[in-house]
Amino acid sequence: MKAIAYSEFGSADVLHLTDLPDPHIGSDAVVVKVVAAGVNPVDYKVREGHLAGLLDTVFPVVPGWDVAGTVVAVGLDTPELQVGDAVMAYARKDVVSGGTLAELVQVPVRTAARKPDALSFVEAAALPLAGLTALQSIRRAGVAAGQHVLVHGAAGGVGSLAVQLLVHKGAHVVGTASEGNHDYLRALGATPVAYGEGLADRALAVVPEGFDVVLDYVGGAAIDATPALLAEGGTVVSVADPRARTELGGHYVWVRPDAADLAELGALAADGVLRLEIAETFPLERAADAHRLVETGHVRGKVVVAV
Fold first, then answer.
1. Relative to the CA of 165, which of 157, 173, 192, 242 has its CA 20 to 30 Å away?
2. CA-CA distance, 240 to 13, in Å (whole number)?
3. 253 in Cβ contact with 140 (< 8 Å)
4. Could you report the per-residue pLDDT of 267-283, keeping only the tens digit for each?
């Protein structure tokens, strides 16, 4: 099969199109013919070796965890899926090696859900990691209707989905973003504020009593500003900065594959509750350019590779 792979940690220049053996099926997995694969910030962080202390790596690595495609082979114990099913998955495994930027990928059934007919394969490939991150972080925070919630990085792939899930729950949402994305956030139902110096003052001008929940999808300076933004008894949840837990007494969320959660997200997207913003789609041979775009940190929505 054709695949994008790298044999050493490094910049996007280490990515190359190559031929690799077809994946094994596995007893509790299926093989999916890839139609589209999402690209996420974690993909370039893994590629650069920043997560080598957390995840075992077996070279050559095919990057990518998000996938949408069609089942072409099933394992011995996969009653959930059949050959021909259109699926989407956050296909993260215990070892970094056989990812989704390839013509074929092995997908554990615990990570996969059927793709709703109302979603294109490109839209479905954009949903898993970002959607699960948003859903699971909101759930960890215990957000309730009527609460004031601040979302750091609200126009990004995760943040924009979190805003929509929060609005659907009945929360009052304020989102940080560059001014060029403020109209976009208003269209999603959030009140935008510009990030950067003076962020706390701008956010508190909107909600003077402080926020019941701060959801951080950025880290760094966003966490630095958070203590001033929380109402008494407020909670912070971060997917980007462990200090939310270790210093601020909140939570750090490492997104988990979950077929039921993904099916829930797919239904919300199919019903129009979630709008999936696709920033750009690249062909497989230009996957390195897709990585470079995500690395800029200024992408509205999601970047997808079409295989």
1. 242
2. 25
3. yes
4. 999 999 999 999 999 99
CATH 3.30.360.10 for the 2-126+277-306 domain, yes or no? no
In what helix (H) or strand (E) does residue 184 lie, and over which residues does it extend? helix 182-188
What residues form DSSP beta bridges with 192? 175
Taking only the tens place, the pLDDT of each residue in 21-60 is: 999 999 999 999 999 999 999 999 999 999 998 999 999 9
Instruction: Give me the residue spans of the domains in the chain.
Output: 2-126+277-306, 130-252
- First-last CA distance in the chain: 11
Distance, CA of 227 to chain centre: 26
Angle at the Cα of 215 (from 128 to 171), degrees rounded to 5?
A: 90
Which of 9, 29, 19, 48 shows the shortest CA–CA distance to 94? 29
Q: How far apart are CA 109 and CA 91, in angstroms?
A: 9
Q: State the Cα–Cα distance between residues 149 and 138, nearest whole angstrom.
A: 10
* Alpha-helical runs (H) found in 32-181: 41-47, 121-126, 128-141, 157-169
The model carries a pTM of 0.96
Instruction: Name the class of domain 130-252.
Output: alpha beta
